[in-house]
Design brief:
Blueprint: E1 9-13, E2 16-18, H1 21-24, E3 29-32, H2 36-46, E4 52-56, E5 58-60, E6 65-67, H3 71-78, E7 85-90, H4 92-101, H5 106-110, E8 111-115
Parallel strand pairs: 1-4, 1-7, 3-4, 7-8
Antiparallel strand pairs: 2-6, 5-6
Length: 119
């Protein structure tokens, strides 16, 4: 756990999370941006000063939630090379498809997956 404190960590979801979750879990910066190229640029600018950054595509104020990013964008973030870990909450079906597609293991070495199961 403490090893991650020295690493560059990005947290996100491909679904929705509560608006309060990033700050509750110690993320000092939340980037909200629908446009992928701009989100990546903002993330790269922040990595020099912040060790933990959360990213989402938009606020959903009527639900009190944040909309996550597309799974394909998670792949792009993993390939940036500057980030040590990406914590992602994936829906279970997508997670299983990703495991099936990853033959070289590259992405799994860059992403620490957290699976949120609905009860």
């Amino acid at each position: 756990m403490f090893a991650l404190a020295r690493e560059l960590v990005v947290t996100t979801t491909t679904t929705k999370i509560l608006e309060s979750e990033p700050s509750l879990h110690g993320s000092p910066l939340l980037i909200l941006e629908k446009e992928e190229v701009r989100l990546i640029k903002l993330l790269q600018q922040s990595l020099g000063r912040d060790r933990h950054v959360s990213v989402a595509s938009e606020e959903l104020p009527t639900l009190g939630k944040l909309r996550g990013i597309k799974p394909e964008l998670v792949d792009k973030l993993a390939k940036l090379g500057q980030i040590s870990y990406i914590e992602v909450i994936f829906p279970l079906g997508y997670l299983l498809r990703q495991f099936a597609r990853c033959s070289n293991g590259r992405i799994l070495t860059k992403i620490r997956l957290l699976v949120k199961l609905s009860v």
